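Chains adopt folds. We examine one example:
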Amino acid sequence: MLNIRVAQVNDIPEIANIHEIGWRNTYSFMPEAVLLNRDKNFRMQQWQNWFNEDRASQDEALYVFEENGKTVGFCMCKPNDDDMLIGARGELHALYVLPDVRTFGISFLAINTLSKFLLERNLAPLCCWAFQKNKIWRWYERLGFKRIIARNRRINNIEIPEYGLVHFEPNKLIDYTGQKLALAA
């Protein structure tokens, strides 16, 4: 049975591991220098900093997915701090799941949970970023996100093309993902 819950500091090792695996699996098109730079140690420090800075008190949310008591993924949202997506107030920032446990409903559960969190804090419209070579941006468009901008993100001094997408009707997004979750149950 799949469960989602608020992440705790003791979840950091699993989150870091899933984050590294997710990057390698999802972004295999990236140069090896970028992938090597985003190893487990990098991710351990990233998520330790998140907890040390008490980001949860700054309208950010970090959730973990559990299946049969094992952490199998995580998702995170935050206020949008990128002025390239004018008007977007909340960002769906991360969603990573172990490749062997991806299920029909897990992405809908993440989007639904994160969208509700942001909407409750008046952080809408919602945005997300997707690398152009990662075709997930097409799925976001099917959910109602609109491609607003194309740009390059610099990671480890390497330019990687990405799209910025915005969803202007988060209540519709929550309803739609809720319907999909009901079908998956």
